[in-house]
Design brief:
five-stranded antiparallel β-sheet; alpha+beta; 15 helices; three-stranded antiparallel β-sheet; Aminoglycoside 3'-phosphotransferase, Chain: A, domain 2; 51% helix; 406 residues
Amino acid sequence: MTLVELTPGQRQLIDKIAKENGFKDHQVKAITGSAKGDNYLGVITSVTIEDGHNKLELVLKSSHVGEIRNQVPIRKAYQREIFVYEQVFTKFKEIQEEYHISEPFESFAKLYGTCDTESSECLVMEDLRESGYKMWNRKVPMNPEHISAVLKEYAKLHAVSFAMKEKQPEAFEDLTQSMKKHIFDEYFHDAEKTTQFTDTVMGSIFRTFLDDPVTTEALKGFKERLPDVFDEVFKQPAKEVVIDHGDGWCNNLMFQYENQLDTTSPSTVRIIDWQLSKISSPAMDLVHFFLVHSSKEVLHDYENYLKLYHETLSKNLKEFSCDPETVFPYSTLLEHWNKVVKMGIYMAFNMMKIMLCDSEEAPDLTEISDGGKNIMDVMNFTAKDTDTFNTRIKDLVEFSIENGFL
């Protein structure tokens, strides 16, 4: 890792945090906090505060500067995440405490401070790695224990929204008013940009099935229907019922284990990176996470995983004195799943190449934009491990066709 020089504004915020946490005559050390390919809409810096008696390990997540801000809604992303931490999680904590929820949703890093100044946006959070939290190896499908743990956590998250909407409808409406649009909303409605991006993504998928004309035809039909898929997902107010995480790939999930030598089954999950959070269907979180990270065997058992999600959702809703069969029955979950699953497949096509590439192969958004290229070229690269990519894509496409999703 490399030493990092904090900006004056960042150092001021860190010094403020140090003072608030009882540090005197403290020293600050900052080093790079992530490898290339681990994070795309921010710069991650590991910060240590010490005063000879105490130590505090933090993560500083700061915004990119330069040309990338003209191509990617960086400011909107940070404003959204700051809002989630400072407003949404505060309201969620209050209502869960009011109803004495036995297993509340609290699966996020502790926030120490933020800055919302233009071009200096940042959040300072606890470093979960210091508590033993680890990321999953993004090149490997998650095992059933990890898939189940994440789905249960999403169920707890969504249950709070459902409960707040039932018990405090006006407060929920106020809270979500600014979260109704995706931060990339204008991109999804820009035909030229989406076509350019989709052509690049689907080009890799078509190459996987060069010797399979039947599947190729099915994929061509899927590609042609993508504009309708975008409209169906982003122009369906009736499906906007919960606050979603919105970015459920494995690098935004961290796991803690009772026995650090046995990482088979996690004891605790933490969900990080809330920049894409919005009010949406709960099924959006499910299709995004599940289709991207599941093995062939887990994919084909998807209904049992949906039932597991719904069991946890129902349990928490009952503790809020809500009737799951009225608020969100399993039949409605399946209806939502079937409505958004095509979007989930498309997101999986996007993410698979990113997940399976080596660090040195991963695209660098700042290099792309500062080099005068269009950010839509982000997926225009070829990963070395084409065999693993092709296998994962074939498993996903086979599952999608067999279940009538494609």
